[in-house]
Amino acid sequence: MSDEPRDATATAAADADAEVTGGLGDRWASFRDREISTVLLTVVGVAVFPFLFNNFLDGYTQLATLMLIYGIFAVGFDILLGYTGLLSFGHAVFFGGAAYAAGIFSASVSSSPLLVLLAGTVFAVLLAWIVGFLSLRRGGIYFAILTLTFGQMSFYLAASPLAFLTNGENGFTSVDIGSLLGVIDIHGGVPFPLSMLVDNMLYVFVAVMTVLSVAMANRILHSPYGTVFRAIRENERRAEFVGLDVWRYKLMAFIISAAFAGIAGSLFAIEGNYVPLQSLYWTESGRIVIMTVLGGVGSLFGPLFGAGLYLYIENIVSGFPTLGPFWHLILGIVFVVAVVLFPNGIWGGIDYVRNMVVGGDEE
Amino acid sequence: MTVLETDQLTKQFGGLTAVDEVDLEIEQGEGVSLIGPNGAGKSTFINLVTRRLEPSYGEITFQGNSIIGMDPHEVVQMGMSKSFQTASIFPELTVMENATIAALAAEHGSFRFNFFRHQNSYPAVEEVANNVLESVGLYDERENQADSLDYGNKRRLELGIALAAEPDMLLMDEPTAGMSPDETQSTVKLIKRVKQELDLTFLLVEHDMEIVFDISDRIVVLNRGSVIAKGTPDEVQDDPAVQEAYLGGVEE
Predict the structure, then answer these.
(1) Of residues B20 and A25, which shows the higher confidence score?
(2) B31: which strand partners?
(3) For residue A135, which of A124, A125, A148 has the smallest C-alpha distance?
(4) What pLDDT score does A18 carry?
(5) Contact with chain A for residue B134, Cβ under 8 A
(6) Fewer Cβ in 10 A, N or C end of chain B?
(7) Statement to judge: residues B177 and B246 lie in one domain
(8) What are the pLDDT digits (tens) for A226-282?
(9) Which of B147, B166, B185 is the last residue of a domain?
(10) Nearest CA in chain B to A1
């Protein structure tokens, strides 16, 4: 992300302000620092993650990649659920839809990973505009059911009537991903300095997209939209009576979250070279709700942790001797314990512990 | 200049006529109170004017334009603000964020396509928000969560949110409901002050007659949906129809 775009008059005004009240300038600077520090934190996080994961947690890089992909999905979903207070139960339609769009685009138009990513994301955004336009007419549980309906509709559409495009129940197998910018083999290894941390280029690609996604989400949440979204969550009628077009903001929240689902879905197709029909099924929509709640609704980083923990239990714990077959039960227990002890999810728990140790911090 | 005018405004719920052909005119800078016994149709009238309810028939004009068919947020953007009967704030946000939302709506209009601009790049919004908090005396509380304010301060914040847009007209639905005598006093003082400072036009719905007679230029009395009296506080006080409506007629 570039620096804040500010015009000359605003700068002059801020300078004048700073003279009068020295504290204001300092506060402003610390705000900006925080945006940069958020990005840096994410860079460090994704850089050391596979090393730690592979060596200490029985992990493997492919799963780490998948965790980041679902992390992007969850970060976007939280903008809708945690910040705007809208529970969508059909976000698989954007994840899976983008994956299919990306796959079909790669097979028939261009195999450039960046273009494939763009195509999938644009498809998700357009689809969200339509689905959101229709679903947001109703609130609460009706909204959830409507989104679920659209999700299931897309699943059955892809399964049979559109099988000539999607290859039906077998999933889309003709994904064709070329090299990045024409030179870097995305499924190949990485050159020396990086290879100390990561062992394949795909992870690097996904990690870069994760950092960009977190930076975008962070910027959105610190834009006027972030405040408006939370206002809608807190008191929709009041937001309307201060003169905000609540309906359009809700549609924007829906589209923005779908854009993140689109990025994740496209990366999912690129990562697996395959799009399973399952990616449109309602359980996929349910997974993202659980990941987000587990990680912590209303926090930026929480959903990343929620996605990681979910996939860890699903893929690693399920392989443990004796315990393994019960991984669904374990996931359920973890979910219940997390929700009871830390209503704000893992991130809420981390915050709580940090406050105990450091002695209080805002947010 | 007439700010708000209703003509034959009527709302029927099934067989019940809640608001019955009400004609009302409010001039620029005037403070008008709407009073009447329970169920007289005061809240329905306010809801019609703020576009929360669709009238059965009749016309509402605000600053010379008909507002029938508009969305509530459009009416607010035209300059009509509303303070709610309960402390309608954003409880889990800070006091400053509460004011910022109102300032955003005032500075940017009902919708803007600016989700990639950092909030810090809008110093004007922050300025409006600060002014709002200073004018309602909550500037020192700005970092606190709105939830943690006592009830009187929540109502002040609510009023501040309604005033952030510097509205041409403010509708207040029982602004002192549930307040202690002290809080009521300071709220009345606040309303008087902003009325003077902003040359504010307001329409007040209130049960507390002391307040009504204290701050109104003119009073309109509703009973069973119709206007039964209007005039200055003194005129209304002496009106036999009003006394009957409040004290109950013998033939009831």
Answers:
(1) B20
(2) B202
(3) A148
(4) 40
(5) no
(6) C
(7) yes
(8) 999 999 999 999 999 999 999 999 999 999 999 999 999 999 999 998 999 999 999
(9) B166
(10) B116
Tally of domains in chain B: 2
Q: Indicate yes or no: CB of A227 within 8 angstroms of CB of B101.
A: yes
Binned at pLDDT 50, 70 and 90, residue A10 comes out as: very low
Beta strand pairing status for B2-13 and B57-62? antiparallel
Residues of A in contact with B95 (CB under 8 A): none
Nearest-by-CA chain A residue for B161: A242
pTM for the structure as a whole? 0.87
pLDDT (average), residues B18-28: 90
SS3 for B33? strand
Write the residue in B72, B93, B112 that is nearest to A240 by C-beta. B72
Task: Tell me if A230 and B97 make a contact (CB, 8 A cut-off).
Answer: yes
B97 touches chain A (CB under 8 A): yes
- Residue A332 Cα, gap to closest chain B Cα (Å): 29
Q: Does residue B215 sit in the same domain as residue B229? A: yes
Same-domain status, B63 and B103: no
Nearest by CB to B89, which of A4, A225, A235? A235
Q: Token digits for B75?
A: 């009416």
In a domain, A10, yes or no: no
Asked if B181 has any chain A CB less than 8 Å from its own CB, the reply is no
pLDDT, mean over chain B: 87
Chain A residues within 8 A of B125 when measuring between CB atoms: 224
The answer to the question of residue A358 being in a domain is: no
Min Cα–Cα distance to chain B from A312, Å? 33
Tokens of B161: 């949110």
Query: Whole domain around residue B47: which residue ranges?
Result: 1-79+167-252
**Cβ separation A243–B112 shorter than 8 A:** no
**Same domain assignment for residues B27 and B66:** yes
Are B93 and A219 a contacting pair at CB < 8 A? no
Q: Does B179 lie in the same domain as B75?
A: yes
SS3 B201: strand
- A5/B117 Cβ within 8 A: yes
- Residue A17 predicted with pLDDT over 70: no
Q: What is the ipTM of this complex?
A: 0.87
Contact A351, A330 (CB under 8 A): no
Q: Do A73 and A95 touch, CB atoms closer than 8 A?
A: yes
**Average pLDDT for residues B189-197, to the nearest whole number?**
84
Nearest residue in chain A measured CA to CA from B75: A243
Between A188 and B213, residue with greater pLDDT: B213
Using a CB-CB distance cutoff of 8 angstroms, which residues of chain A are in contact with residue B82? 241
Average pLDDT over residues A73-98: 94
- Is residue B217 exposed (0-12), middle (13-18) or buried (19+ Cβ within 10 Å)? middle
Buried b (16+ CB within 10 A) or exposed e, A93-129: bbbbbbbbbbbbbbbeeebbbeebbbbbbbbbbebbe
- Percentage of chain B with pLDDT > 90? 29
Residue type present at position A313: I
CB contact under 8 A, A228 and B161: no
